[in-house]
Amino acid sequence: MSQQWKAICTVTEIPVLGARVVHRAAKPDVAIFRSGDDKVFALLDRCPHKGGPLSQGIVFGERVACPLHNWNIELDSGCAVSPDEGCTQKFSVKVEDGKVFLDLDELNTLAIEAKAA
């Protein structure tokens, strides 16, 4: 089955070193992040630690610091940086002609709680 993509916004509508929230029926929402070099990532807007809103965290490099307890989450994998453990769901992102697209099936799917082994 081929992927269906949903246009969300343009890259420039996401603050540099910041995030934009994508509201969806299947809660929690999705956060789209933009790094300093314009790479775009999408994660469930929920820290694996205590559920803090990652979209309100500080982006540095390709990580975001959760605003609640300063856990560092890798934007490309959704996983916490050691010694912290746990992952949040990541979403497929495509950028074409300055537009950001997310996988429609992933957007419509309920969040899967990923736990560290």
* Spatial shape: globular
* Strand numbers in spatial order across the main sheet: 2-3-4-8
Estimate the strand proportion: 35-45%
- The parts where pLDDT drops under 50 for at least 5 residues are 113-117
Mean pLDDT across the residues is: 91
Compute the number of structural domains.
1
What's the CATH class, please?
Mainly Beta
Major sheet description: 4 strands, antiparallel
Radius of gyration: 13 Å
Level-2 CATH architecture: 3-layer Sandwich
Description of the molecule:
It is a single chain. With 117 residues, the protein is mostly beta strands. The protein has one domain (5-108): Rieske [2Fe-2S] iron-sulphur domain (Rieske Iron-sulfur Protein), CATH 2.102.10. Helix content is 4%, strand content 35%. The chain is built from 1 helix and 10 strands. Strands 2-3-4-8 form a 4-stranded antiparallel beta sheet, with no helix packed on it. The protein has a 3-stranded antiparallel beta sheet with strand order 1-10-9. The protein has a 3-stranded antiparallel beta sheet with strand order 5-6-7, with no helix packed on it. The longest helix is centred in the last third of the chain and has 5 residues, at 104-108. The protein is globular and about 35 Å long.
